[in-house]
Amino acid sequence: MALPKTPALTTDCVVFDPKFRVLLIRRKNEPFAGSYALPGGFVDIGETVEAACRREVLEEAGIEIGELRLVGVYSDPKRDSRGHTVTVAFASVLPAEMRPKAGSDADGVEWVADWRNQGIGFDHARILADAERLVWGGQGNDP
Amino acid sequence: MALPKTPALTTDCVVFDPKFRVLLIRRKNEPFAGSYALPGGFVDIGETVEAACRREVLEEAGIEIGELRLVGVYSDPKRDSRGHTVTVAFASVLPAEMRPKAGSDADGVEWVADWRNQGIGFDHARILADAERLVWGGQGNDP
């Protein structure tokens, strides 16, 4: 039985380090080429969303993440100019600082301290704000 | 630009009434034909997951629901024999008792008080347990 066509499923991850910095990539490809964005990507058929999230952070930033907390599901049909994508967003807090290494999909990857004042692609600034509330309860180390 | 093929996206809803009963449908179609299941279905391209959730409960049970709370995202590749489906599950609590009316997709729809002791299709018993914890904090009106 063929399944109906539904929106494409993606996952994005808000990775915090102990200094309250956030792992952001510089996008190489459109949309939002050159902008910061959260690491993430499309979920493969046959993998869970949690596995896809861990795989994407490893591929794009060379970092293995531990526990994931569900931040939310973002499904506005206009959130991605390529077509209707629905993203499942997770947050993860690293126990120690780690040096990231950009994968081939990204122009760079870095820990960003003043992420509140950066332009961030897609609806990722909103996702980040929601993750901050979930993980730090608004009590983060505000710079 | 064509989007990659990803798992099919569905939504399911745990609707409680003020008596702590749960709205369950009798499935007409396989898989799990004849079993209880949560109201839900595939998300259309162009609609949000919240809108899809409200639409499915209205279509299958004739009930308009209010506020939705995100219960979780369930993505085990084996959870649906038709293929890999990922469901976004919500919970909603009705302010008053309402009489449901089965849609054409269901063999029946009813308020079930002893839902803990019923066979429920898919992974919906787990979703229901997670929703109970989220909404009632385990302090439900245990029969």
Distance between the termini of chain A: 54 Å
Indicate the structural class of chain A: alpha+beta
What is the number of helical segments of chain A per DSSP (H or I, 4+ residues)?
Answer: 2
C-alpha geometry of chain A: globular
How is the quaternary structure best described?
homodimer
How many beta-strand elements of chain A?
7
In percent, how much strand structure appears in the residues of chain A? 25-35%
Indicate the mean pLDDT of chain A.
93
Enumerate the spans of chain A where pLDDT stays under 50 for 5 or more consecutive residues.
none
SSE topology string of chain A: EEEEHEEEH
**Order of strands in the sheet with the most strands of chain A?**
4-1-6-5
Major protein interface? A-B, 30 and 30 residues
Over the alpha carbons, how many angstroms does the gyration radius of chain A reach?
Answer: 15 Å
How helical, in percent, are the residues of chain A? 10-25%
The major pleated sheet of chain A works out as: 4 strands, mixed
Topology:
The structure is a homodimer of 143-residue chains.
Chain A: E1 8-16, E2 22-27, E3 36-37, E4 40-42, H1 49-61, E5 69-74, E6 85-93, E7 106-112, H2 124-136
Parallel strand pairs in A: 1-6
Antiparallel strand pairs in A: 1-4, 2-3, 2-7, 5-6
Kindly list the characteristics that best describe this protein.
homodimer, 143 residues, alpha+beta, 3-stranded antiparallel beta sheet, 2 helices
Describe the model.
Two copies of one chain form a homodimer. Chain A is an alpha+beta fold and 143 residues long. The first copy, chain A, is built from two helices and seven strands. Chain A has helices spanning 49-61, 124-136, and strands at 8-16, 22-27, 36-37, 40-42, 69-74, 85-93, 106-112. The first copy, chain A, has a four-stranded mixed β-sheet with strand order 4-1-6-5, with helices on both faces. A three-stranded antiparallel β-sheet of chain A has the order 3-2-7, with no helix packed on it. The radius of gyration of chain A is 15 Å and the shape is globular. In chain A, 41% of the residues are buried. The model of chain A has no long low-confidence stretch (mean pLDDT 93). The A-B interface holds A 1, 3-10, 42-50, 70, 72-73, 75-77, 82-86, 88 and B 1, 3-10, 42-50, 70, 72-73, 75-77, 82-86, 88.
